[in-house]
Structures are given as structure tokens and as C-alpha cells.
Amino acid sequence: MWVGRPVGRMLQYMGFLARHNVIGFYRGVIIGGGLLAVGLAVVFAFPIPSRVRAPVISRYAATSSIRSPANGFIERVHVRDGQTVQEGTPLVTMRNEELRCQLRQLQAEHDRVAVEKRQAAGELNEGKTHVLRRHAESLQKQIAQIEDRIESLTIRAPNHGRVIARQLDTMIETYVEEGDEIMVVADDTDREWIALITPRHIDRVRACVGENVRLVSSGHRKFTSRLTRIEPRATDRLIEPALASVHGGPLATRQDRDDSDSDQLRMLQPHFHAWLAVVPDASDLPVGMRMFVDCGYRSQTIASRLREWVRSVYEAHQTAQHAT
Predict the structure, then answer these.
(1) How many CB atoms lie within 10 A of CB 178?
(2) Of 238, 234, 226, 225, which is closest to residue 203 (Cα–Cα)?
(3) From CA 184, how far away is CA 189, in angstroms rounded?
(4) Which fold would CATH assign to domain 52-63+187-323?
(5) Region of residue 88 (left: phi > 0; alpha: psi -120 to 50; beta: else)
(6) How far apart are CA 110 and CA 173, in angstroms?
(7) Contact 275, 229 (CB under 8 A)
(8) For 260-291, what is each residue's pLDDT tens digit?
(9) At a CB cut-off of 8 Å and minimum separation 6, what does 298 contact?
(10) Model's pTM, two decimal places?
């Protein structure tokens, strides 16, 4: 109705001009047709430079993360938050009673086999002696493996760096599972920038690998970096909580449905991870800061932009429905 009435009035007015003012009628047709042609050309034909803008997070590299080598309790913490450590410095000592029990059982079995082997040797029973010798060697290998695992429970710094962990003292007698992160040991060279690219834009961004791109920080500082590589598969795993919309970030998230007791967040839409070169000019930017990267510049019409926007809204709606 809000479109039909103005159009109807315009047609009535044009009909009035055609009957009473022919020159005015043709003038209106020419001017209106020209404006319509210009409008259609602007929307469907004239290219406008467009770009892909993606969120970026600054974080420490995964290799700087110190994780538990086995299940167990944290028995002792040897360092404090912010302390600078050298390679090989003890960080944490863990306790695993199951491994200790296995070691005692294997050692007892090894001692028993050693006694039987001496008895067989005294009886000149070469066949039994050979079997027991092989069994003892197997037990010794198992004992060495268990001892190595127990030794690994004293976690040491893999490299020079600064200890980054909160409330280390409260971790004593805390149970951790194998693979859980305990702390980070890193320096400024261990930082990395990771951009998250939607599947809709991945083809345009892949064309930028090896090229310079522009980064914009939250304080509107601009840096020139280089897109080094892109993870070949998309994932919905959220690499940093700061990116989640619930924490003021740009990405819509949901709770991990696979574990109702977990506070792990998942993105509603899978994204590709893209690595950017960390530039010296940004050495003062703190880890955890959110930024944006602009890349994939191309000429695109307004109609094409509108079509992509409608499609992105539809895909986001479908993804949200699937998540619920």
C-alpha cells in the first residue's frame, strides 16, 4: 500500500500531463527515465571497492602452553606468576598414585623373576632360564617406561620465557587430567595473530596468502602485516574467550552441547583460522587484544553486496536454528 499509492498518483499525474501538457509529459518521461537508468546502473553495473574484514586475536603460540603429561594431583609449584625461567627450570611437580602403584608391582614382579631365574640357573635348566631372562628384560623395559612417566610429572620449562598463570598457589592438590593447560611459558617472540574467516569469504582471503594486509587495533592503530597461511579446515572451536559476543567480542557463540557441565564455548558458524605475521611495530600490544584485518579487496556492485548480505543473514538464521 505504501508503494502503490505514490505510484498510482504519479501515473495519474503523468496522464494529466499527457492530456494537457504534452511537452511537460515528454520532459518528465526523459528526466524520469534518465534517473531510473542512472539508478539501475549504480545498483547493478557500477563497481564499488569492497573488502573482507575479519576479527583477529593476539595470543601466545600453542607451543608455549605447558600441559599436564598425565592425570594426577599438583603436589608442588616451583615458580610464581611473572617469574622469568630458563630452559629446564622445574615448574610443577605432580603426583600420580596409579603410576607409583604400577611401578611397585612391576618391581616386585621383576624381583620374583630374578629369584626364579637364579634357581633355574642353579638347576642348569637352560630353557627355563632363557624364558625367565626374556621375561625379566620385558619387565625392565616396562619399569623404565613407568619411571620416565613419573619423571615427566616434574614438569620443566621447555625454553626461556616468563611464567604466565594466575593463582598458582591455589593449584596445589588440584586434580588435573592429561592435556590440561597448567600455565604458559613464553616471551614476546612467542606471540601469534590469528584471524577467523567465514566460509563465505574464504576464497577471497585465500587469494591473499603471502600478500600484505592491513590490521586495525581497537585503538584505531593501523599496521601492515602479511597473511602467512590458512588452516585447510573450518572449525567451530573458539580459540579465545575474548572473541565471544558474551565477552564483548564479534562472534556469536553457544555452549558446548557435548558436555553440559563444561563452560567451553563454540561458535555458531565454523570459521577458518588464518595466521598473520606479527610485526615489530605492534610489540606493545598486549596478548588477548582483539583486532580486525582487511583483505580480499575487489570491485563489487551494490546489488552484489546486498545479495551477499541477505545470504549471510539467512545462513546465520539457519545456523542458529540448527544450534538450538
Answers:
(1) 11
(2) 234
(3) 13
(4) Elongation Factor Tu (Ef-tu); domain 3 (2.40.30)
(5) left
(6) 32
(7) yes
(8) 444 578 888 889 999 999 988 887 888 888 99
(9) 49, 50, 204
(10) 0.63
